[in-house]
Specification:
The protein is mostly helical and 179 residues long. Helices cover 72% and strands 0% of the residues.
Amino acid sequence: MRPEEAALISRCVAWEPRAWEAFAARHAGFIQAEARRQLLRHLGRAEAADVEDARQEVYSLLLRDGARALRQFRGEAALSTWLACVVRSVCRQIARHERCAGFEPREIVYSPPTEDELPREGLADALARLPARDQRLLRLFFAEGRKYRVIARELGVSINSVGPLLARAVAAVRARLPR
């Protein structure tokens, strides 16, 4: 590390007046160019607002917790190499956040069965011949009007399996009904 860089980092860590402005002025162009390159790599785009957000986040990270990140720089590599690693990390976090923010869970593909699908004649006998779990499932849904979330918790299954289980239980009742 060059002596002037070491001195500037020491001044920033000591919170000397105007030290941070000098650091930012010296490295702003590099940080901005690296942020643009990393955002293109991780997001496939590098709009000016995204680059500015990344640059500000890098500065925030460097100053957070009493300039902890700057204090951790040991000078074993060039400052530009170390800053590139910081920028890369920040841009990866931004990309990960954007991917997660755009994620919407898929809708449940099974629509719940209705009571109208089951005729009344022979229903009690057909229900009695079902396995206990299916009987409980149908009782919870039709008789007690429980939501999928509650049924899943009571039966110890995932919420996404309640719809298919209901559909199978209704089909099993239909198969046991007299024709």
